[in-house]
Amino acid sequence: MARRYGVQATAAETKAKSSRMNLVEANVPPYKIPPLLKNKHGLDIVNAVDYCRHERPRRLGMIADAMYGPLPPRPDTLAFRTISEQRDALGGLATRREIVIRCGHRGHERDLLLLLYLPNGATRPAPTFFGLNFKGNASCSTDPGVNATVTKRYPSYGTARYEDNRVTEANRGLTAGRWNFEKALARGYASATLCYYDLYPDRPDGFNDSIWKLFISEEEWETEDSPYGAISAWAWGVSRALDCLETQPEVDASRLVVHGLSRLGKVALWAGANDERIAMTVSVCSGCCGAKLSRRQFGENFEWVDHWNPHWHGANFRRYVNRESELPFDQHTLLSLIAPRLLLITSATEDVYADPIGEFISAREASAVYQLFNSPGLGADTPPPDTLVGQDIGYFLRTGQHACTPADWDAMLDFADAKLKAI
Description:
Blueprint: H1 11-19, H2 48-68, E1 77-89, E2 94-105, E3 108-119, E4 126-133, H3 176-179, H4 181-186, E5 190-195, H5 218-222, H6 230-245, E6 251-261, H7 263-274, E7 278-284, H8 302-308, H9 331-336, E8 342-348, H10 356-372, E9 388-390, E10 393-398, H11 406-420
Parallel strand pairs: 4-5, 4-6, 6-7, 7-8, 8-10
Antiparallel strand pairs: 1-2, 2-3, 3-5, 9-10
Helix pairs in contact: 6-7
C-alpha cells in the first residue's frame, strides 16, 4: 500500500517543495508548448473531420495515461429515485427536487444524492448548470428543506487538509454564496449539485468508500503502477449526474453546463473533454493540472500537487514531477478537446498559485483547434480585470482571490445568455 498511504511529509519537506514554486513573473523561463495542429507524425492537421477521427481520441488517451488516469465505464445499472420535492422552494422561485442516483456494478452499489432546483417561471425545458460541491448539498443553500444527513464521517488522516468538512445542520448554507442558486433561477436556468465525497472522499485512504470499489480491487488501486485517480472518479460522477438530469422533463438536455472551482474546475475540464453532452464547460481558478500551462513554471507545479494529493492522479503522473517540459502535451491540449463546444475560463487577479496569465494563454492557444470548426475560439486579447471577453471560448479575470463569487456567476450567466441560449 505504499503508493497511496505513504508516510506523511515533514514540515521541512513541505517547506522545501513550497520554496521551489516560482511566484515571480520575471523568473518564468523560456518555454515552448506542443503545437495543436500537428498530428503524431508531425504532419499538419487541416480539417475537423481528420482531427475528430484520429487526433482527438489519441489526445484523450494520452492525457488519461499521463495525468488523470482512465474514467471508469458506465455502470451496469443506473436507477433514479426522487426522495423529496417542494414546489415552492426559495420563496416560490423554484421547485426543489432531491434524487438518489443508484449505481450498480459487479454486484456492488453506490448511491449519489443530487440536489436540483428548477425555475418555476420556465415555459419550456431549462438550460441547466451542474457542479460538484465540496461540503455537502446542504452547504450550498440556506433552504431548510435540503437534506443535511451524512451517514458516515471520516476521521482525521493526520493533517487538517484531509479533515471531513461537510456541513452539519448547525452550519447549513455555509457556501451558499458560492452557488447563487437564486441568481441562476431568476435568469431562467435550473441548477444542480452533488457532493464529491459521494464519489471519492478527498483523502489518500478514500478507496474503500468510493465508486472505484465498484470497478477495481484495492490491490489494483494501491499498486505502484496503478493508473487510477480520484479526478477521474469525480469526472465519472459528473456524467452520472447528467444521466439523471436527462431524465427530468423540465431540463433541456441539449443545454447542460458543467462548472467547478479549484480541483473541481480540473474535474469540470476533464469531464468536458470526455462527455460531449456537455454544451458548456466552466473552469473557475482551476490552476495546475487544470487550465494553466504547466511549462510556464509559475504558481503551483506538479511536485506541489502530488505532495498534497497523491490520490488525484494515476501513477504515470509522478514521472513528470519536476519534468513538466517532458509531458507530451500541455493544458491547452485539454482545453482544445472541448472544441467546438462552449468553454469559459475564469481566473482571479490575486490567485497566483493558479497563474491567471497561464490560464489565459492556455485558452488563447486552444483556439487553434476551435478554428478547425470555423470558430474563432477565444478571439480576444488579455482583458482588464472584471471584463468578460471571448467568442466560443470565454475568459474572465475577476479582481480578488481564489474563490467562486457572485461576480464569477455573473460572468457564467452572461456567457451562457450570449452563447448557450442562442443554441
